[in-house]
Amino acid sequence: VNTALSAVQKLRDTASSHDRLFIVEVMGRDAGFLALEVAVSTGAEYVVVPEIQLDIGKLCDHLHYSRKRGKTHSLIILAEGVMSALELKNRLQDTGGYDARVTVLGYIQRGGSPSSFDTVLASRMGAFAVESLLEGKSGSMVCSICGQMTLCPLEDAWKSPKYLNPELLALVEKLSV
User: Fold this and answer.
1) What is this structure's pTM?
2) What is the pLDDT of residue 140?
3) For the chain, what percent of residues have pLDDT higher than 70?
4) Residues 150 and 166 in one domain
5) Rounded CA gap, 32 and 1, in Å?
């Protein structure tokens, strides 16, 4: 998220100075958690994630509304699993008068440095894993639930459904107005 945030902040400067719409493709083949975090942290006007059916008409209406309100640029954050950024650009019948550009951040994101939060979390999880093994506990994965380390069944990683935070989804809309 931090790597994408840095890149999108630079793109926003370009979008603003050149009256452009940037469609930014980020990691998220099967889930939109990263795309949603990037959208909120960058103040994107729209986020496209696998969990929510894309309504092209609604997206075009949103771009028109932004333009009518005087916005000189717009950002769409797209999770790669929905479609490619180029495909989305081609599917948009109307960009609200913006000159649309595409940027794919996938490989840049994968090469980012961990943040302080990441390294502290990894250290806490590693210590908890070692302590658990020393206590004879195995066959589980370490989880952080509400900031507390705990052991969870490994199957939870792929069997338990995970949902996007509705507050963050609403926040993208609120911030784009």
Assistant:
1) 0.80
2) 93
3) 91
4) no
5) 12
